[in-house]
Amino acid sequence: MGNPDKDPRIIKEIKTLGAAGYDIYSLCWHASNDMSDNLADVNYTKINLPLPKVNGTLCIILWPVWWLYVLFSLIRVDCDIIHALNYNSIFPSLVAGKLKRIPVIYEIMDISYDAIEMPSALKRTIVYLDKLFMRFSDSVIIVDENQLKQLGGIPNSHISVIYDSALDVFDSNLPHSRKQHINEFTILYVGVLYKIRHLNIDTLCHAIKNIQGVQLIIAGYGDLVEDINMWASQSNGSINFIGRISYSEALRRSMGADALVVLRDSNIRTNRYICGSKIWEAMMCGKPILVNKGTSTANKVLETNCGLVVDANNVEEIKDAIITLRDNPELCNELGANGRRAYETQYSWEIMGKNLVDCYKELICEKM
């Protein structure tokens, strides 16, 4: 259950399961009627709840409506397994799973309540309920092993770590080595652009606008767009905002960039414990990545030596790191090659997809 209009991870999971022979029904809240990223090549049906798109408190108020919709939809649909995405879908999924006597997978893509300011007693209650949902699920999928620390452990013996890795579009016929004195050094960020994510885009733009021979390309959508357009207009051409692009276009542009960047604030617990997708896209493309210290992403960068780690609050440190990459093509090539090697051997979507399909097969076999 999830909305493939917004999340490339869901698209990848649907395609992977479809290729393995599964028929997929997706229950969505406020989804479009379009088939996302050519999902027409799998046996996929989207069932949409036409509630308005809302955020914050109003979204929580509408949860009971969503739960009833999910519950009755799951009872009506003929299915062998239920795959619930995140906290707001797991309760009705567990009820439907018990009624139909079929396994339920609880995939924790992020822990949204961890980023919301609320009374400590309320948060403890939510965490307690979430732990119950994990215990009663047949399997739990997490997107980063550090989520075990974030959650203080998961009371379930069937846990799979499936990173949000990139589809492999690496083309060995394209030039991947960084060459000196050829065009500008291009740094790319593609992703959501919401202030609540604490992306440090402002610091990055401030650091880059006075560096010669470097261009920052930003793509995405969110409430930071107006600010980014302002920063770009003041940058003398060193910052280029191109708006929202598709996942396939994001991968294509990543292949063409010299480096990728993601400077999410480590004070946000989700950033500290979940890598996100940018590091895997950089690894797949064989490109170095610039990341903020104190994050799960930084841990992976240091572990595989595939990029540089900086203090995202220090403009001079960011500037020095960018200049280091710009002026050292051999270093860029080495970091990119390290990332590509780690992707091929540990983190590719081919490996993640196999883990996902194996999870399904094991649960179905256990219920037979």
Largest sheet: 6 strands, parallel
Helix residue percentage: 40-55%
What is the annotated CATH architecture of the largest domain? Answer: 3-Layer(aba) Sandwich
Query: Helix count, per DSSP?
Result: 15
| Structural domains: how many | 2
The percent range for strand residues is 5-15%
Highest-level CATH class of the largest domain: Alpha Beta
Structure description:
With 368 residues, this protein is α/β, with parallel strands linked by helices. It folds into two domains: 8-164 and 349-367, Glycogen Phosphorylase B (Rossmann fold, 3-Layer(aba) Sandwich), CATH 3.40.50; 185-347, Rossmann fold (3-Layer(aba) Sandwich). Helix content is 46%, strand content 15%. It contains 15 helices and twelve strands. It has helices spanning 8-19, 56-61, 63-76, 87-100, 120-136, 147-151, 201-208, 225-233, 247-256, 269-273, 278-285, 296-304, 315-327, 329-347, 349-367; strands at residues 24-29, 44-49, 82-85, 104-108, 139-142, 159-161, 185-190, 214-219, 239-241, 259-262, 289-292, 307-310. The strands form three sheets. A six-stranded parallel beta sheet has the order 9-8-7-10-11-12, with helices on both faces. Strands 3-4-5-6 form a four-stranded parallel beta sheet, sandwiched between helices. Strand 5, helix 6 and strand 6 (159-161) form a beta-alpha-beta unit. Residues 176-181 have low confidence and may be disordered.
